[in-house]
Amino acid sequence: MSTELIVPTLGESITEATVSKWLKNIGDNFEADEPLVEIETDKITVEVPAPHAGSLKEIKVSEGTDVEIGGILGILNESKGKKPILKKTETKEEEVKEEVKVVKVETKSSSAKSSPSARKIAEENNIKLEDVTSSRSDGRINKEDVVSHLSSSNKTTNNKGEREEVVKMSKIRQTISKRLKEAQNTAAILTTFNEIDMSKVMEIRKSKNQEFQSRYEVKLGFMSFFVKAVVKSLQEYPAVNAEIKDENIIYKNHFDIGIAVGTEKGLVVPILKDADQLSFGQIETKIIDLSTKAKDGTLTMDDLTGGTFTISNGGVYGSMLSTPIINRPQSGILGMHNIQKRAVVVNDEIVIRPMMYVALSYDHRIIDGKESVGFLVKVKELLEDPSELVLGI
Fold first, then answer.
1. Rounded Cα–Cα distance for residues 6 and 72 (Å)
2. What angle separates helix 369-384 from helix 222-236, to the nearest 10 degrees?
C-alpha cells in the first residue's frame, strides 16, 4: 500500500517551502515518525516525519526545488512490521546475533549527547561525534559545533581549491535580504544614539548572580535588564511599540519583544511573548531556551510569530557602535553594544566607568525625534538606576 508524503501547514503567511535535503534514499526503510526530508521556509527549517513505518518508493520533489504547502514530496510504501526481515536460511543463532547487533547500534545512538541535526550532519560527512568539541556548558553537541568542526577539517582543502565558489542562497537568506531592503525602501529610518553607565547593573549582577542562579538555574544576564527597561520605556512612549498599516497606526497594548539571534543560516528573531508579565528569571530562562532552539534549528512558527519591538546585541561579537535596521512591520529596534571602560565626567570629576553605546533605529513616519530621544533616554535612566526595574515601581 502506498501513501503520499505531504508538505505540512507551517503557518498562515507561508505558502511554499524549499526541499533542502532528503534524509532517505529511494528504497531506504524507516520507522514511524522518523525524519524523511528537511524543508526550508523563509523563517524556519523543519524535518517532515514519516506518518508510518515503511520505505521510500519515489521522490517527487528534488533538493533545491520549491513546493507549495500541501504539495506531494514523495510516495511511501507502508510496512506493518518494525523488525528487520531475516532470510529463512538463517539459523536461530544467527538471528540472535543480528538482534544483538541492532540493539547495540541503537543504544549507542540514543545515548549520544547531541541534537538530531548535529547527528545528521555528522553522519553525512562521516564525522565521529566524539571528535567534535561542544561549545555548550553541558557538553551537548549542536549543529553549529559540527559545522565548525567540518569547516576546520576542510580548511586546508578549501585553500587549495577553486578561487570562487557559487552557492545558491537559502530560503532564509533570500528572505532576510528581501526584508532588509524593503525596510530601507519603505520606512524612513533614522538612528539616535546614547551611552549608558553600566556600573549599577554590573554591581547587581555580581552581588546577586549566585543567588539568582541557584533559584532559577540560569545566570543573571544583561538582556533581562534591557528587556525590562525597554518594556517600561515602550509603555511611556507607545508610538515606538506601534506600526503603520495602510493609512492607519496600530498601537499595540502588548509587549512581545524580539531577540535577534545569529545562526549559521542567518539572523532569526524569536519572540519573547508578553515580556511585561515576566520576571527576571523567566526572561533569562526563555531567552536561553529560544537561543538554543535557534542554534539547533528547532524553532517553531509560534516562536517567530508576532513581535512589537526588537533588541539586537551586537556587543556579543565585539561591536562598539552600529545602526540596526528595523524589523518590519515594527517601528523600532534597539542596538546593544560591547561594554568598555572609558573616562567620563561624574560630578565634575574624571572617573573610569564601564560604558555601553546604545542605538535606537526608528521609523520617522510614525515616531518623531522627540519621542525617539525620549525613549532612549528613558532606557538609559532605568539602567543607570535600576531600582525601578528591580522593585517594579
1. 5
2. 140
**Options 33, 254, 364, 385, the catalytic residue:** 364
pLDDT at 233 over 70: yes
* pLDDT tens-digit series, residues 167-218: 777 767 777 788 788 888 888 999 999 999 999 999 999 999 899 999 999 9
Domain count, the chain: 2
pLDDT in tens, 3-38: 899 888 876 567 778 888 899 999 999 988 888 998
Does the residue 153 lie in any domain? no
- pLDDT, tens only, 363-379: 999 999 999 999 999 99
* Burial 112-124, CB ≥16 within 10 A → b, else e: eebbebbbbbbee
Catalytic residue among 131, 289, 302, 368: 368
Q: Could you confirm whether 52 is annotated as catalytic?
A: no
What pairs with residue 261 in β-bridges?
268
Q: Tell me phi and psi for residue 117, to 5 degrees.
A: -65, -35
| Residue-range definition of the domain harbouring residue 273 | 176-391
DSSP reduced 3-state for 355: strand
| Interaxial angle between packed helices 199-216 and 222-236, expressed in degrees from 0 to 180 and rounded to the nearest 10 | 110
Count of alpha carbons within 13 Å of 301, Cβ hemisphere only? 11
Contact call for residues 358 and 375 (beta carbons, < 8 A): no
CATH number, domain of 23, equals: 2.40.50.100
Q: Is 368 a catalytic residue?
A: yes
Does residue 40 lie in a domain region? yes
